[in-house]
Amino acid sequence: MKMGFGHPPPGQTQPAPGCIWVRRRVRQLLRCFTRCCSLCLDCMDILLRVLGPLMVLLAVFLIGFVAYTFFTIIVPQLADEGTSSPMLLGQLALGCFILVNIMYNYAMAVCLRAGEPPPFPGEGDAEAGDGSLSLRQCQKCLRSKPPRAHHCSVCKQCVMKMDHHCPWINNCVGFNNYRYFCLFMLYLALGCLYVVILGYRLFLQSVAPIRKRPPNFRFADAQCISLSWLISLCIFLALCLLGGFHAYLVVTNQTTIEFHINMGNRHAAKRKGEVYRNPYDLGHSRNFQEVFGPNRFLHFLWMMPYLAKRPTGSGASFPTVSELEPV
């Protein structure tokens, strides 16, 4: 028997008109919700592009303010309290060393491009057909999309070994500048801890009643010391969390994006009774050298990127654990 168009098959009842109406409205609401989410994400991307330069200026201002307070107020106050000259010179030298490394690594993280993949073969660059590259193509920027590369919706381009887009550096964190980003956080945390330790006694004096302060302790100096000490403490605590997370990512050879992807893969494998392993986890030592170059950890040369060896590779391909295991 031939069925007419739109009629249900035998044995199946047609949904009630009310159910059809509800389903249509639900689909319309879902489409409207999806459009609203997409619009919110686009607005967030625009906001990050606008706020990026302002966040960089704010970061430079905060670092400069704390450094000014340390060198022009805290150190002279320590000298007035009877700190010996050799100790004072050592404190100044260590402070200068930390400040120079903070600004150097921050400048490199801001100014250095995170790593843009080459054009897709056949899209204007005949040399882009390197066999080491994956043949995937990004459908948004139309460039090659090597393994571990992701498209940044803020920068509007793909980034090799993309970790995240950081508004504090107005740049993506990727293959080329990840070690500078990590070292900036490390030196910034050391600098904040240095100010917190050396300025602790002066901070207590600055928040004490005026009659209990030393006679040469001006009100403006007390305000600068208390504000700088609180800023340093807050930034240090925040960096302990963020820096600790990135230290874990470094030793496990993951990016922030891959951390969330691997966590989902790990849960899916656990439900199947299997064990998921990150294919790029080569062991702590090799993972560390993937980010900071072929430099030994205990030699601490990796902390000075202007002297240390650069990381190997081009960012287009990465060794996997299957390549290291014997067949």
UniProtKB/TrEMBL annotation:
Does the record carry Transmembrane helix as a key word? yes
Q: Which reaction does it catalyse?
A: L-cysteinyl-[protein] + hexadecanoyl-CoA = S-hexadecanoyl-L-cysteinyl-[protein] + CoA
Q: What is this protein called?
A: Palmitoyltransferase
Location of this chain's protein in the cell: Membrane
Primary localization class, coarse? membrane
InterPro entries (UniProt xref): Palmitoyltrfase_DHHC, PFA4/ZDH16/20/ERF2-like
Annotated membrane-spanning segments are: 54-75, 87-107, 178-203, 224-249
Q: Which family does it belong to?
A: Belongs to the DHHC palmitoyltransferase family.
Q: What class of enzyme is it?
A: transferase
Q: Which UniProt keywords apply?
A: Acyltransferase, Membrane, Transferase, Transmembrane, Transmembrane helix
Domain comment (free text): The DHHC domain is required for palmitoyltransferase activity.
Q: Where is the Palmitoyltransferase DHHC domain?
A: 136-260
Source taxon at top rank: Eukaryota
Task: Please spell out the taxonomic lineage of the organism that makes this protein.
Answer: Eukaryota, Sar, Alveolata, Dinophyceae, Suessiales
Q: What is its EC number?
A: 2.3.1.225
Q: Which organism is it from?
A: Durusdinium trenchii
Q: Does the keyword ATP-binding apply?
A: no
Membrane-topology annotation of the record: Multi-pass membrane protein
